[in-house]
Structures are given as structure tokens and as C-alpha cells.
Specification:
two-stranded antiparallel sheet; 98 residues; mainly alpha; 2 strands
Length: 98
């Protein structure tokens, strides 16, 4: 909800932003979120992966600097560059080449 209020005759406007979030119990979200069974969850994960680790950037990166997917060091280096977890990077690379 976005609202504007007058700050009491000073002629200055105060803008207040309220974000209302519909939260589920964390345990309920964890029960299915990692199973890849909810179509919306899968789509949201794919969207986030493309934002954080764009396919065209990764393909260019891997063409210029090939990595060994079995090497934790290589995965950690690449995941640090994109500021994501090594698990997220591993999944992303696997999904790109599937």
C-alpha cells in the first residue's frame, strides 16, 4: 500500500510505503519447495536463476574459462563471481546443458 500524508501544515509531504507480505509458515514452505513439484515454484526458481546467472553470460564465461564440474574450487570461484551458492551454480550449469 502506497500512501501520502501531509506532515501537519509544514507544506512538506511525507511518503510512507508499506509492504504487506503473505507469509506461509517456514516449515510448510520447506516441505515442498525443494521437491520441484509445484509448477509456480519451478517457474519462480527458473526466473530467479536467469536473473542471477544469465545463460548468455555463463555460456560466455564457460567458453572463455572452462571449468571442471567435479572441482569444488571451480564451482566456488564461479558461484562467488555471481554471488550465489555453489549448489545454485551447479544446478544452473546442469540445467543449461540438459
Amino acid at each position: 500500500m502506497l500512501g501520502r500524508e501531509d506532515s501537519g501544515g509544514t507544506g512538506k509531504e511525507v511518503t510512507e510505503i508499506q509492504l504487506v507480505v503473505n507469509c506461509r509458515h517456514p516449515k510448510a514452505a520447506d516441505a515442498t519447495s525443494s521437491l520441484a513439484v509445484d509448477e509456480k515454484e519451478i517457474e519462480a526458481n527458473q526466473f530467479a536463476a536467469e536473473i542471477l546467472m544469465p545463460k548468455r553470460f555463463l555460456l560466455r564465461e564457460l567458453a572463455d574459462n572452462p571449468i571442471d564440474l567435479e572441482s569444488d574450487e571451480d564451482i566456488l570461484r564461479l558461484s562467488a563471481k555471481y554471488a550465489v551458492s555453489s549448489q545454485a551454480m551447479t544446478y544452473r550449469i546442469a540445467n543449461i546443458f540438459m
